[in-house]
Specification:
mainly alpha; 7 helices; Arc Repressor Mutant, subunit A; 2 domains; 3-stranded antiparallel β-sheet; Helix Hairpins
Length: 209
């Protein structure tokens, strides 16, 4: 299972591919992107940035604000090594990509992944949730009203996501089929070949005098 820190680092690289960002803007965009139940704190963000600096995936650039104060601030930008790492990691479609936090982050960058990678991640996520749903249904029950309601709420939530994933998978398949059809050569309508005149080779009928 991928750590939350690894997911955060990959999300940072994805955002920095769009444009350099300073810490405040980066934190704001990460909170919108990841949708974690708890807001991302600077205490989590800056240690991750330090690790990425040591790895050579990002670098710091000091800029001067355009305000009256002319205050300096640090802007983070991705390096070629960071781009290479992000490109490699974002195409990973194994079980680690199906987990809750990792899936959300990867889904946010689906526009940068190949259609086959998207399909494997979507199908893997649906399979993982179906297993979770089967377990929850098998253990459902009990005499406590509130525990039962909590179980029902959890099952309803997973069922909704499974339906959502099924719709996405069907949409991906339709798009892939359309792409294949568009790439197929147009051979035109099937028609019979034109008829050619057959030369008259019969011996002429002549009379013997």
């Amino acid at each position: 299972m991928p750590s939350k820190g690894a997911t955060l680092e990959l999300a940072v690289l994805g955002l920095l591919q769009e444009s350099p960002l300073h810490g405040y803007e980066l934190r704001k965009r990460l909170n919108l992107l990841l949708g974690w139940t708890r807001l991302l704190s600077y205490g989590s963000l800056y240690p991750a940035l330090k690790r990425m600096l040591r790895s050579g995936w990002i670098n710091e650039v000091t800029t001067v604000s355009s305000s009256v104060s002319r205050r300096q601030r640090i802007v983070y930008q991705i390096t070629p090594a960071g781009t290479e790492f992000f490109t490699t990691e974002i195409t990973e479609a194994g079980p680690a990509a199906w987990e809750d936090e990792s899936f959300n982050m990867r889904f946010a960058f689906f526009s940068r992944t190949d259609a086959n990678v998207r399909m494997r991640i979507l199908e893997g996520r649906r399979s993982r949730l179906q297993e979770r749903l089967d377990r929850a249904r098998s253990t459902r029950g009990g005499s406590d009203r509130y525990v039962t309601e909590l179980q029902r709420h959890a099952i309803d939530s997973v069922e909704r996501e499974v339906r959502w994933l099924t719709d996405l998978i069907e949409a991906e398949r339709t798009a892939q089929d359309r792409t294949v059809a568009d790439r197929a050569p147009d051979r035109g309508p099937l028609t019979s070949p034109p008829k050619t005149a057959v030369p008259n080779t019969a011996v002429p009928n002549t009379e013997i005098s």
